[in-house]
Amino acid sequence: MIKCEVRECLNRILHGDCVTQMKKLPDGCVDAVFADPPFNLQLGRKTLYRPEDQTAARAVRDDWDSFESLAEYDDFTRGWLTEVRRVLKPTGSLWVIGSYHNIFRVGVMMQDLGFWILNDIIWVKTNPMPNFRGTRFTNAHETLVWATPEKTGKYTFNYDTMKKFNGGKQMRSDWAMDICLGAERLKDDDGKSLHTTQKPSDMLRRIILASTRAGDVILDPFFGSGTTGAVAKELGRNWIGIEQEGKYIAPAQSRISAVVPIDLSEIEVPAKREEVKVSFMELLDGGLLYAGQTLVGPRGDRVMITKDGQLSHALYGKGSIHVMAARIQRAVSFNGWDYWSAEKRDGTLVSIDALRKLVREAKQGMKKAA
């Protein structure tokens, strides 16, 4: 099979079987994959009725979710996962979502094929569909598995952006969000949901912002209603969609065409490891701080800057900005940049991290000029 150039497929929906279409792509050509494969729900043609009014509930009974046996489903899963691992860059990310019907089988095959699992994420549905028959617990979550194709330790994780999303705290592995309803849900000509398993855009925003950079290529081998493409375009990423069912393609393309990219500067936080490094001693060398000056902690703790760029305290001895912040709080470690403020000659305080940013901006300007 002749491989196509990846640029020929960018920001396009490829119509056909996902394995066949992926075989046309070159090795290591995409930065991330989001896969929402058939769950193999095994509902058959049974109709579920709401107990309060006996109206029929919408369930997944599409042919694309129908498999003769678990062995057939396993063969299908192994096939698309094999191609995903080939087209992913070694530093890329794979996200797979599933329910209890399939995610455990998918996870085993991922590990058998050499994927390295980084996290499992629980999508807690804040408005789940109830269990109409009252025979089981209400199924109020789905599971996302996040993995890399190899155990390299090198992959994209925008930790600081996720922390910003979570109100300044580390992002956890339980994500509470609504199922896709209302205006976001694509409708067919009869006003019914176009796709039975459309995922919320908020989920894809979080996934894409967490594990990709602007300009990266994201592949979705089960493109459906086009959520991955729409959010990728919104966030300045490229995308490739593969969809077997022709009825979804035109609505998905129309949806994506209407998307306007947003200003990422208000959303994404540059990774600290990519920022220009600034040492505490550079603040002294630059005249922003001086030996003998007092630094004050948020609880009124006071230390003095020494000539060698250390901090001195009558009870806690001498150490770096980080060591002294930890000692005073009786902590194992602490980021001193976030703890100390410098007392100026007029008695006002200024954060040493704010002073560090001034030095960093000056160094960045010199770097660009060079």
Low-pLDDT parts are 47-57
For the biggest sheet, the summary is: 8 strands, mixed
User: H/E element string?
Assistant: HEHEHEHEEHEHEHEHHEEEEHEEH
Number of strands: 14
Distance between the termini: 48 Å
Share of helix, binned: 25-40%
The strand line-up of the biggest sheet is 1-8-7-2-3-5-4-6
Average per-residue pLDDT, rounded, comes to 88
Shape type: elongated
Oligomerization state of this entry? Answer: single chain
Beta content comes to 15-25%
Whole-number radius of gyration? 26 Å
The structural class is: alpha/beta
Report the total helices. 11
Structural overview:
The structure is a single chain. By secondary structure, the chain is of the alpha/beta class. Helix content is 28%, strand content 19%. The chain is elongated and about 75 Å long. It starts with 5 loop residues before the first helix and ends with a helix. Mean pLDDT is 88; it is low at 47-57.
